[in-house]
Design brief:
mainly alpha; 326 residues; 14 helices; single chain
Amino acid sequence: MSDKAPQLLEDIDGGSVPYTVFSGFCMGSADVVPGVSGGTMAVALGIYHRLLGAITSLDRNALKSLFKLDLEGVLARVHWRFIAALGAGILTGIALMVKVVKLPEMVEASSPHRPLVYAIFFGMVLASAAVLSRHVKGWTPVRIGAWIVGAGLGFLIVNLVPTETPDHPLFIFLCGAVAICAMLLPGISGSFILLILNKYAYVLGALAKLDLLVILPFVFGCLVGILSFSRLLKWLLDKWHDTVLATLIGLLIGSLWRIWPYQTLVEKIVREKPRVVGATPFWPETVEPRIVVGLVAGIVFVIAVEAYAARRRASAAPPSAAPSGA
C-alpha cells in the first residue's frame, strides 16, 4: 500500500462496466464473509484506487448540485458509471450469499454448522492479520506500542459489547457507519465488525427477508460512514500509514476470541425465538477434524487472495499505483 494514491479524475467508459460489475460482485460476496475484506478484494482486482477516486468525487460541490436538483452538475462531477456498476455488482454478490448460501442461518446458535463456519472465519481473520503485518515497513517501538494498544482495545471491545446488543434503528445506523469504514480498509472485514457488535446474523437476516426497518438505517449509516469517515481514514493512512496499520492488526488479534469455534452459549427466549445472551470460549478435550479443516481452509483462502493481489501489484504500472498501502 503506497502512501500516495493516484488521483483518478475521470469516470470509467462503457467498455469497463462489465469488469466493474464483476469486481463489485466479488466485493459483495467477500463483504458478507467475516475475515474477507472487500477492500482486499478491490486491491486484488486492481480497482482499489479507482474506488477511492469515486468516493472522493462525492465532494461538497457534488452534494450542492444534488440539493439544487442539478442532475447535469452531479453527473459531471461524480464517477456515476463506476459507482452504479460497482454497486450493482456488490448488491448481486450480497444477495447470492444471503439468499443462496444462507450464511445468516449457518451462524445461528441452533445451527449445527456454527462451529465449522466460525472456524473458517477464525482462520480468515488470523490470516488477514498475518498478511497485513507484512505491509508494516519495520516494527519500531512506536508501532509495536500501537499494536499493543490495538490488541487491548480489541479485547476490551469484545468484552464490553454485550452479547445481546439493541435492535434500535440508531444502533443499526451506527453499525452501518462503522462496518463500511472497515470494508474500505484492505484486510479489515466489515462483517467481522458486525460480528463483534453482535449484529451479523441480524443484519444479514434482514437483508434476506428484505426487512426495510433494518435495511434502511443500516444503509443510511453506510452512506454517512463512506462520505465522512472514509476521508478521515484516508488522511490517517496518508499521514501515519504503518502506525495505523499496526493498530488495526492488534485490533484484529485482540478481538479474535469472539469467533473462536468452541463456545459455551447461554440463551434466552426473546419474542418467541432463542437469543444468545452469553458466550464463553473454551478449549475442547478433542478438536473435531472438520474444525481443523475449516480453520486451515480459511487461512489458505486469504493467503491465495493476497498472493493474487501481490501479482497484480507486481505487474502494476506505474509502481506508485501499487495498492498495498492505501
